[in-house]
Fold each of these.
Amino acid sequence: MDPVPRLGSGIPLVARAEEMRRLSAAFEGAELGEANAVLLSGDAGVGKTRLLTELGIRAGAAGALVLTGRSLDVREGGLPYLPFAEALAPLATSEDPVVAEAVRARPALGRLLPQGEPMPGGGLPEHMAVTTATEQDPSRRRRTEQDLGQLQLFDAVLGVLAEVGERRPVVLVVEDLHWADGATRNLLSFLVSRLRAQRLLVVGSYREEDVHRRHPLRALLGELVRLPTVTTVDLRPFQSADAKAFIEALVDGPLDADVLARVVERSEGNPFFAEELIASCVTCEDIPAGLAELLLSRLERLPVETRRVLRAISVASEPVSHTALADVSGLGEFELDEALREAVQHHVVVVEKGCYLFRHALLQEAVYGDLLPGERIRMHAAYAARFQAMPPGRGHAAKFAYHSLESKDFTAALPALLAAADEAEKLGAPGTALRHLEQALEIWQAVPAETRPAEADELKLLGEASHFAGTSGEPERAVAYARSATQALTPEIEPERAAKVWRRLAEALLALETGLDESVEAIGKAWELVEHAGPSPARAWVLATRANILRITRRRDEALWSARTAVEDARATGARGGEALALIMLGLLAENSGNVEEARDKLREAERKARAAGSLSVELKALYYLALSYDDHGEIPQAIEGYQAGVRRAEEASLNWSEFGLEVRARHLALRYISGDWPTKAGAGQPGRGVSGAVAARMAASWVQIVVGRGQVETAERLISNLRAQWRNDTLIALAAGAAATELAFWHGDHAAAVAYAKEAIGWLEQLGSSLLGGIRIAALGLAAAVEQAAAARLRGDGTTVATAVAAGEAFLAHARACAEHGRPRTGTLGPEGKAWMSRAEAEARSLGGTGDPAYWAGVVEAFGYGAIYEQAIVRWRRAKVLLAAGGAENTALAERELVAAHEVADRIGAASLRDAVREVARRARLSLPGVDASVLTPRDVLDPLTGRERAVLEQVALGRTNRQVGEELYISEKTVSVHVSRVLSKLKVSNRAEAVAVAYERGLLTKPASV
């Protein structure tokens, strides 16, 4: 028996036992129906693929189906879903009837699974073909967008893996995630986030050194590692002893000690470096100074024809077929065979699925980097010519564009980039489409005007780039491209087209809170261009957008005229999308006047017409505002249902992070918080991928409330800190972050800090000149903190702090009243949420003087009964404290009922902060809570750090007795009393006896009424 455990490739498993154990444990969990995922990271060459190969061998031996796919480095021309297409390809040809039926039952998989033999040249299956930009009708492409949504495809992939897993465990391996395109990252995120009881293990590997701070994968990793089903395995370089053992095991015969020491030193613990160094050592005397030199010097030992074909493989940047190499390398069949045989035998190239690729990516990079400029251009041109001659196929446009760009054939690259962008859009990958358009814009001026695609010009590309930036969650870039489009306008541009450009800028600016003034200016220029023209689709769209901006700026009569005129123009010219947008504006204006049912009818009509017109962004806007109508009126179930419909539609249309795709998600998450339906998945709804900081912050602002409620202090502090940078960009972010900071400090008893955070948030809003209704909530939270701060100060006899806290509370109350009076509710009147928070602010203010009003608090509880389950539980807890302070058997009984109700909610939804606060009040009042162990509600060491003797001493101190009097009462010496008092001060972290008594009484550590 081999004494050294080995990987499937025969390479010894030195120093990898722990990593292999963790991967095996993950697979064993999947076998038992505990689906999970592993993220395997490490530097290039550290052994990730070898470890995964061994996992595949072991899993296969245990009866599992192992599916493996790899991302490719195609130089910014990312192919959507490529690794999944490769991994799932065996399912299409499986002879297992269960697998075949599972595939047939999911037609959406047809976009990934091959229907025939792979195309030569490493291309994708022919069934994935799409037409080029010059052959396809753009309007037809737009109409088919809704049929290519991500959600159906994602569900199909998860469904087939789960169904196959019912028969045998499935291991899905996705390698080289650092090269993955955005669509692949989205699908991976979807799968991993939905791992439950499937017999499925998902493993993803990536190069840690390639995932830099702004790399799009980093955000996804940050999201995934928080999931309970995800574990991480970091493959580190070998330590010196392990590297020596590894190298010794690699060599068949004895190795010179000096050579061994030098290889260990030079390899720096990287197995690939060590292996390549050893290979070089045994074939030449000199050891190269660096890795690239070493790799190239090793290749120099190979025949000329072999090196020639290796250069051709390096340019392909993907697995390449024998036929493709024959075309590109210029070698005859015999010479090519011999050259490839040499490369395979020397372990430079490996064969996978009939195609050739370098054994290690670093080797390919070294060879590619060593190419002379001329030969690099010639080989890229040869590959480009090959793809140009092929029948259209999925991914061909992107590959052809890449090779044309690298060969400096910009004339050929330009239409290919447009076709690739078109294909990416149809596949639901707007970020990929944006990158293709950006490359097209970069080379636009380098292409002679007479050879540019007839159906496109720079103005169109800028407009589409703005659109794709907006739909992929990058509103700032959307504005930048829209601005560039306005700068590209010339006097020769017809007025309607110029108006469309200015309207696009106005619309893009509305996604940024700081863009309103510029948006007003932009729509004004658009209107000037079409104001005196006859009805047209462009004029209808301008009028509808103008109505929206006038509505926002409170010019209601002008907005109403613009919206009605837009409807007339749209109906006269058949612009159904523009009509739908105008109907939304009419609905919003109706609701602002209090005509709720009329408003909802308009919004439903707008949603129907936008869907029929294929105006996806307008459709989403209608769905959002319809849900918001129910939201504003406190009809929570209907609002949640409406937001869910918007989320589903955004996913179907691949508009997840467009302006209103974001809004429906953010508000849906906020309502889940309010209604007590808290997500179990950490970071639910977070984009975590390829979106701007403002978009990510918008979602984090909704999520941070749940994090605070759950008592996850470190996560909450990090989120609050990160959100601070976005306060200026979005008032809603400032409101959410300010409220979260106030609540977090409040729950942890730092009431002074909570008051300070509330003041800061309100000060920020006042600087902006804002009297947003959200300010009522901030003021109410600040008032609660001021009440607690004043109460604690009274116990300490600290009159100065009492006065300060009361003054702060009065200022908070004044701010809340000002917001309620001068705020501008969208519906025209203060809704249930605003009224409830105003009611709480008034109730808290009544406690500033030291005693609250139990009867008034009953009204607050009722006010939050519109569906705000969590907030109502909080005010029940607040009311219980006021009732207990008032005293009396009846009040105590009422308090107990409120605490029981609050505890049930807190315990059910996982609101740890509220749950602990309720239990603390119950413990002090010696009340019971159903389902809670009595020991939880009695003094414990964790809650009560004092010993029995220390507590007895403190009780005497609380009665105002000196150390001598305490000693006489307890029959101990004065010196012993002094020691006990010192220990009490230390444990309670206070500086004097009065503070100790106040803190102890506040925390319920004293059992007798204190009289100081």
Amino acid sequence: MTHFPRAVRRLAFFLPAALLVPQPILAQEPTAPAPQYVTPAEGTPWIYEGSDVPRDEEWTFGELPNGLRYAVRNNGVPPDQVSVRVRIDAGSLHEEDSERGYAHLLEHLLFRESQYLKVGEAIPTWQRLGATFGSDTNAHTSPTETVFKLDLPNTDETKLTESMKLLSGMVRSPVLSDANVKAELPIVLAEKRERSGAAERAGNTSREILFSGQRLADRVPIGTEESLRAATGKSVSAFYNRWYRPENVVVVAAGDMDPMRLAAEIEKWFGDWQGAGPLVPAPDFGDPVAPAGTDADNPVGEIGVIVEPDLPRSFTYAIMRPWRPVQDTIAYNEGLLRDALAQALINRRLEARARAGGSYLYAQVSQDDVSRSADMTFVNFAPLTGDWQAALDDIRGVIADALATPPSQEEIDRELAEFEIVFTSQVEQRRVLPGPKLADDIVNAVDIREAVAAPETVLTVFNSMKETITPELVLEHTRALFSGDVIRSAYVTPAQDEASEQAIRSALRETVDANADARIAAKAISFDELPPVGEPGEIAAQGPIGVLDIEKVEFANGVKAILWANDAEPGRVSVKVRFGAGYRALKPDDAVYANLGYAALIGSGIGELGQEELDRLSTGRKFGFDFETGDGAFTFYAQTREADLDEQLYLFAAKLAMPGWDPNPVIRAKAASKLAYESYAANPGGILQRDLEFLLRDSDPRFRTPTPEMLDEATPEEFRDVWEPLLKQGPVEVLVFGEFDKAATIETLRKTFGALPQRDAAPADVLDRGVDFPEAGETVVSYHRGDTNQAAAVVAWPSGAGVENLRESRHLEVLASVFNNRLMDAMREHAGASYSPVVRSDWPSDVNSGGRIAALAQLRPEDVPVFFAEAERIAKELATEPVGEDEYNRVVEPLRQYVSRASTGNLFWLYQLEGSTVDARRIEMLRYLLADYTQVPPAELQALAQKYFGSREGWRLAVIPQGQEVATATSAGEAAAGS
């Protein structure tokens, strides 16, 4: 079922991009008799055939005479939007050897030209309809499917008809000519090039090891350069005709419209579609098979050691079983939940050892079905040092204990409470589930060959399963998780000769002693036992802010709160706390601790409570505790619910009033940062992630990514010395938006944030501390150690900051969108030089410096001067020529629809109003919000371009392979001559 819990996946860097879901292991024995399917009642919807799961009555399912299936439903979140998904049951696993990459290439070609869309018309056409290309209009290809996605805003019957017509033309009648294949190929190869590098190599090799003998071993959606370059209109058409046919298609539509109208449009535009030739069955994806002579009691098969000097250590071993279709019944889903419970128990123990300073940074057990190719139990971990065997033994010891002895009832109850809060929250929030997610849920269910269930059904099944749980039953499922036909392993390491295949094979074959030390005593901790934040404070002022029904409350200690109690999003409450001065408060020498704060500050605890105790407090509750350092303030953020809001506010206030300083999270964060540092240099994108903010802020040391040497010198004691005064400093603003009782919440605020001691004032020099923009001049060159055909380039111009000109920042976003469209056209469509160039406008509103407009792209080294020339050319054109009406509308209409959709949610208003207790001008500027994005005249855009682009050249950065040089041509003529 779509809504049942899924195992956390740690193999994201190399497993195929497919939906991975756990199956109840005890129902998956390959030697078991074929399941007896439930006889479907007359009129059973196609997705529920063979299932006794109660149908979700809000969906209407249909099947056309040509075999195409559909699902439609009414959904008003967001209002006036319809989300459409067209799923083709064909991905990279359906390709022959000579066709590798064709499924993904077809995804591109359908957007290039089709029955109702000429070459190059797709993007502008969708933009005119209000859909942003890349977010509202997109597609993806996995090993098992290709899915086209459309989220159409401001939909009426005319727009719906036009959109269904265009989609049907793309899917039914694409123009697969030699010319189109030739034109699209450079873009696909650019995408392939941008993905390649050390992580891609390690991923491909790991896949070949884990899926040895199966199609998945050598069929990734991006394909091979050899097969892609050999593609022709005829060869791609052959793949298309084989798989793109109505019997292999499901169309899903969920939105703010009569579902019968949605169904009628599907029938109108897809009903007379007929496939070319006979229906072809899907190929056999193969089963994992142990090598001949493998010990049946310890079936360790293929092993691989992958040496990549720029990647951190990562060890995976998998117990593999053949994948088989399941009977998606209530009993099956109860088994799935028991499997998930068994995994959760082990993972909590593994995490406890890591927190305590174990031999590994993280470890995770997850059971997944991978691309309908194998049913697998993964064990993934990152050794802290080259002593991988010590880490492996530690982890296997924890698992051996779970296989030998049942868990305690206390442990089981704790995990069940965590599950229950998830399922209960889904029921509470059912009314506000967005249409795109609902449509994706159906697509995912079809992909994994399962049904869908309403949240109420999921909770009911969970409650019935919960009554059957015993420690012995959990033990039985745990043992099934770690039983299989073959064990395979892949170890990625930066060090040569650190491990061998034989050493890993021997280690996996060794018997390990069960280690019960990681079992966690589940002693309950109550909020009633925790000390108060202080004496409850007094309310100094209270009243409306003049927007909607939002109120501001000011306490005598200076804390200010903004509250909006509403029922627009049932079951959700968003809480944000802003305090202090953010990066302004950090000194140049504090960079390493600023970086560690994100990973370690929350984990260091509250008072005497460490991370484990906080976890116990959160059992059965919906809490969050995100932390971020902003330009002008630090922030805590959480999404909770009314039942847990009081405790959530207590935790945030207690972190400020009585922070804990457990050293272990700091030590662990140091280790994680050191392991990750070298991987930044593995590709140009990593260099940008590591250095771009630092460079764009004129090499301000506060924004530097700490080096391993800096991390070595950092200590938990100095971490406390830096952060303890920062937690006491500056004003506090609390924002609470969502479904809650306003009077009760104000009383809780009085007892928590109102009870805080008076805050220390931030020194004047801190508040005046800004950031500079680097001077333009010679191109700054950085070097990466990745593939020699990869580079990145950035051009940036300084802009503004602060609240005073906040309206201008909105106008700049419109200008940046125009810039982005033109750069995309120049670099992707015309030159095929870059797959995804992007232009962004950043305008810090909390501070008065640091704004910029930046264009960036990943591309080939030889195309770096082309990028510089095109970016400068576009900037100058925007400064000298007004934007045309059609181009303007293609930018403004998607922005209009984005604002209209986003403003129906609480988070939109929270983000707009945060900081308004410090600067009330933010409230006044709300009245201009929509107009600023949709009514800025083209002449004003030109004036902005003259202001920011016309007076200076952009600052340039090139990231190129080590040992190469980059041309620095900046004019279009020079670039053309150089290329």
Amino acid sequence: MNKVALACLFVFVSVLLHAQQKNCNIQLSGQIVDKTGNKAIDGAIISISKNQGISKDKGIFSLKNLCLGYNKIRIEHISYQPLEMEIYLERDTSITFTLEIEHIHMEDIKIVGYKSTTLTSSTHSLTAQQLAESKGKVLADALAEIAGVTTLATGSNIVKPVINGLHSNRILLLNNGVRQEGQQWGVEHAPEIDPFMSDKIEVIKGAQGVRYGADALAGVVLTSPAPIDYEKVIGGRINLIGNSNGKGLSGHARLEGHANKLGWRISASSKIRGNTKTAGYYLGNTGAKELNYDGYIEYILSRGKFSAYASHFGTDLGIFSGAHIGTIEDIYARIENGKPFESYDFSYHINSPRQQVTHDLAKLNWSHQVNNGGELDLQYSFQRNHRQEFDLRRIESDDTPMADMVLTTQSFDAAYTHHESTVGINANLQVHNNTAGTGTTPIIPNFDNYTLGIFGIQQFHLANYHFEIGLRYDYRYFDVAGYRYDYKNPNANGSLNQYLLEDTKYFHNLSGTVGLLYHFLPNLNWKSNIGLAWRAPSANELYSDGVHHGSGTYEVGNVNLQSEKGLKWVNSLLYKDKAEKIDISLDVFGQYITDYIYANPNPDSVRQTIRGTFPLYAYRQDDVFFYGADLKLEYHITKAIDYGLSASIVKAINTDTKEYLPYIPSDRLAHYLQHQFKDAQALRSSYIKLNHRFVARQSRYEVNSDYTPPPAAYHLLDFTAGTQLHLKSNTIGIIFSIDNLTNKLYKDYMDRFRYYAHQLGRNYSIKLAYNF
């Protein structure tokens, strides 16, 4: 431990000495011009650290006494979009900067008035090729391309993202600038976001409670469309995707255009899939259907922009029939067998058990540039999430849902940004109601949830050092009312009485962040960010008492739960050589969470109900410590051959009991070899790629703490080939892929249905994308 401390002290002193020896006599000069007409721009403000200048006649500017190394530059003009970038200075330099007029506003990096990417946090985006290859997949499977992001599945239909071992309410999802508010609390409640609607998908690792509010203990996922293309009067794209496994077909169409200062976009997507298949057998009742659509309109003002957006997400999902079991003897027999006793055929028909979910979202946004160079951003959003869960019923019709929940959320966000400072306020009103007539007691009661938050973020720079600090305060009021069964005092005949549960809770806490970005060398950067975030317990963790139909479990809440509070430290090393042959990023993290809430499986107990027998999960709370590392490497071996690798390790210890936590991703590695072909006359960007994935057996596991030990390690091979056909100004993208090339029969520890079934077998896929 002393050696580590001495090493850290040595590095710190060396960095300080290095900073004192910096050359700060460099001059930057150049010209500011309009991107569209190449017209010189007078009166633009150019800021680098504490130095500031103004472009004069013909857009000419000059700044002196700048330091050697990376410098962050910001250029502002009342009629143009602000430009921020980093430049590396090693001698006197002359550069021409181009500004975009305000109507080409980068909507995909704007989140209620502040940027989606933070200066000191570990931020990763899917590449254009990864986005194209992931079309037709659910959001979580697309995100799994990023090192450190894995999935938590409930069968083949329902998949949730996991960041550094944390999932559900600990990951904040921003859907086109709006905080997604659905029934995220369930492990079998997938995000109601259609990746077809997004042109940029980004993950920010680390506790981001200051910038994004409570619940962002693990990190943030941002999805956003591209800005309106004002260089085309009208344009769009069409996607068609076919899959062999499940005989699925997906389609998406987008149309957009503009008329002077008015831009617009409409799009729609649909999906249908039948029963999926493992390497050896069909999975009964695993079909899925989707219908989604959205619309967007914006109007360019003299100093800002007004926009409106609305979307609808609708899905009908089948739940694997083998997860709903009749007796105690049967459930243990199926777990021991490891696969269904029944034989299923292919069918598109979706029976009970199933889920039917719709999510409607609408937002209004107004941004305004102030004379002093600042920007004010106001946003109002409304969301309605309607979740219905259907099960096999003995008396009522199967068309009557067992759970019928409606969650409505209204939010108001205001933020003001001036140079390196941002202040803001967020207000949230949420109402959850269970629809009457289901004939069952809802798993969670009705509740009202009110939240108010205020925050401030400041960035400042000193030579090669870039600092970021922030502070936030949130207050949450939670009021609940609903009926519950009294299991402690049954009647003489064994029947249970009901009672009215009423409760009110208050939660409040501070969030904070301190970050540093340091440029060791022109091609080597270090990011370090310490973030404090918190999360109030959700309604299901506090009050659930019943069958969770989607996951095939019986859940019992704990009304005495306290708020989770997590302190996460992420250190990132980023290296890219001058020739851009090697690109490496390494994230090392540690996170201590007090009062961590989790549902612990009890292998010694199951719960029998009139609807069957289910594994029992009870919520508990302990202090825990997460730590691990994520590695990403890209190596351009030759102009035609690329190699890529990603690996992640996460460990989670219950510091109270000194035991491992359940449902933490095991060690994994994925790498690929890709050959890029030379462009032909019409065919361009052609490639073939072979990908290998390895997932280790979860060895960090407490014996006899689950219904069955973790499954064995597995290897998977995937093949992809892609090209683009260019037809004048239009393109047709073609991607052919084979997942699970060897048709391996395997199970994954992070699948809640691994007790009863295996993962998907081989899948052939063809993706067509027509852009016009």
